[in-house]
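Predict structure. Chain length: 115.
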Amino acid sequence: MKAFQGTAAFCLLIASSFAFADGDFKAGTYSSASTGIGGDVTVTLDVDAQGKINKATVDAPSETPEVGGEAAKVLAKSFVEKQSVNIDGVSGSTLTSEAALEAAGNAYNQAKVTK
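Prediction complete.
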């Protein structure tokens, strides 16, 4: 069992080293929108060639300002801080969070180079 765990860990390490190798991403600004509770929630990500998220904005103009609007700010900050589009949503703002997470995933996928 220990040999399997060691082999699995090694394979995971090798796979993760290729996940962010140069050339796997095209540096640029990518946007996508998804429907929240009040309308479209648009996420824009600035991604470098290694897949690093340098900047993120979440535009939710039709969401409730004190709920969805505030969640948009928290989510944008979290995408950059956690360097991931797979983050937790904001409690109390489920639909806005789900829309932002879906849009962020789509925007990030646009940056990936398909081989």
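Summary: The beta strands are 28-35, 40-47, 53-59.
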